[in-house]
Amino acid sequence: MRAPTRRSPPIRQLLEVMAALRSPEGCPWDREQDHQTLRYHAVEEVYELLDAIEADDDHEMAEELGDLLLQVVFHAQLARERGAFDFDALTQRLVDKLIRRHPHVFGEVKVKDVDQVWANWEQIKRSEKAGSKHERKSALDGVPTQLPALMKAQKLLKKARKAGLAPAPAAKPARKRTPAAVGKELFALAQWCQDRDWSAEDLLRQEIQRQERLWRRQESRATPTPAAAPARKSKGK
Q1: What pLDDT, on a 0 to 100 scale, did the predictor assign at position 129?
Q2: Domains of the chain: total
Q3: Does the residue 25 lie in any domain?
């Protein structure tokens, strides 16, 4: 099998290589993969990219960004084979979304600060999903279920506070903590769990689920129930 010509744009070469790897004459490992078997590969590549960024290593950053792009191209090829979508379709969808969600750049909308940019972004996002199965009916929707527990806890808390479901931070905390002190406390909690053979991740996830259920109940009680429409009188024949 011939490799694609380097005269083509690099992204086209990549797409051709991926299609070749998935072809009947391609690589046995690549041909065995599906969306499910690949799902954690993307997560691993993201963490490797984070390592490269924190090391300020441009060479490794380019390497890991390429590996992450490979995951996108791989999933796009699998979707293309299923007749769902392809790389061009997902790229066009992304371009359209970025233009649509930046009316202050590509339209006539004026914004005064970053907060207004985010407010517009969220409003546009809600309108895009309204009426679809992806509609976000709760202020807590939109937090990925697979996020690490600590990150998920903070994201949910931020949403809950914006929706008035959780108390705002105190203006004067009862106890002042430095970032270093908080880091030590978190590590001490992890050590406490390790010493008892407990999973700190699972324990925090359980508390997140409990707290989220509580917030959602608060939200549902605060949402007025639409009044029932009056019954129409049937017309006699």
Answers
A1: 83
A2: 2
A3: yes
